[in-house]
Specification:
This protein has about 240 residues and is an alpha/beta fold. It has two domains: about 5-85, no CATH class; about 90-200, Nucleotidyltransferase, domain 5 (2-Layer Sandwich), CATH 3.30.420. It has helices spanning about 5-15, 25-40, 45-55, 60-70, 75-80, 90-100, 155-160, 185-190, 220-230, and strands at about 110-120, 125-130, 135-145, 170-175, 195-200, 205-210, 215-220. The strands form two sheets. Strands 3-2-1-4-5 form a five-stranded mixed β-sheet. It has a two-stranded antiparallel ribbon with strand order 6-7.
């Protein structure tokens, strides 16, 4: 097999950015990511065809190698494969560190966003994303069954802990999330990490304080107060 020079260079970069991975793990990760970018697809068939063509290999050989890479450890063990499965969560810190290294040296803030994307009735992806130029780049994620009962709290905390102490001291990490993801424990967890929560809440959550008052009121009352003022001023009549 003659390794394509571009793929070879990419494997070297992946090895440098993920130093904890073994050589087989680096090879699989680099091959998959290279193929996905070049084909704009995650199709095993399309990526196998591309890699086989640029490396002058048999397509079935490449296909089998790519399949073996993402199989779980138990499935590999049944076939006598002693290779260690890749623990995705162990890559999150290196992935965030890679992004930090690519940012301008004057950067002092890191905008992140929480998300929960459901794919039909199959599964839900809980993710933390780096926000850059209108895009969200996933840096940590957990896939759960869409219909699975139970709290997402343990998964969220695990993702937070995976990214702890990666960003340089002195940087401001801003965490945003849509109103459907807000929870008091989530706010407290973000603050505990020394990060800055920027979480949307609905009109039933939180409290507010008027400028001429020393007391706090439920936020839901602010909506009715604003409505009454508009009616009294004939804005809605």
């Amino acid at each position: 097999m003659k390794l394509n020079q571009h793929l070879k260079d990419w494997k070297q970069i992946v090895s440098q950015k993920f130093p904890h991975l073994s050589l087989p793990q680096v090879s699989g990760l680099a091959t998959w990511s290279f193929g996905m970018v070049m084909t704009s697809s995650s199709s095993l068939t399309r990526i196998s065809y591309l890699i086989a063509k640029i490396n002058t290999e048999k397509e079935n050989t490449v296909r089998q190698r790519l399949k073996e890479w993402y199989k779980e450890g138990k499935a590999k063990a049944k076939k006598g494969n002693k290779r260690v499965s890749l623990e995705v969560k162990d890559c999150f810190a290196s992935l965030l560190g890679w992004i930090v290294d690519l940012l301008p040296s004057i950067t002092q803030e890191l905008p992140l966003a929480l998300d929960a994307t459901t794919i039909g009735q199959n599964f839900t992806v809980l993710s933390i994303n780096f926000l850059y130029q209108g895009c969200g780049i996933p840096i940590a994620w957990k896939v759960v069954k869409a219909t699975e009962k139970g709290s997402w709290k343990p998964h969220r905390i695990e993702l937070f802990q995976a990214l702890k102490n990666i960003v340089p001291t002195g940087w401001k990490i801003i965490i945003s999330a849509d109103r459907g993801l807000y929870a008091p424990w989530l706010y407290e967890e973000i603050v505990e990490l020394g990060w800055h929560p920027f979480l949307r809440i609905n009109h039933q959550q939180g409290q507010y304080q008027q400028s001429n008052s020393s007391s706090w009121q439920p936020k839901r009352q602010s909506r009715s107060l604003c409505w009454d003022k508009l009616v009294r001023k004939n804005y809605l009549l």
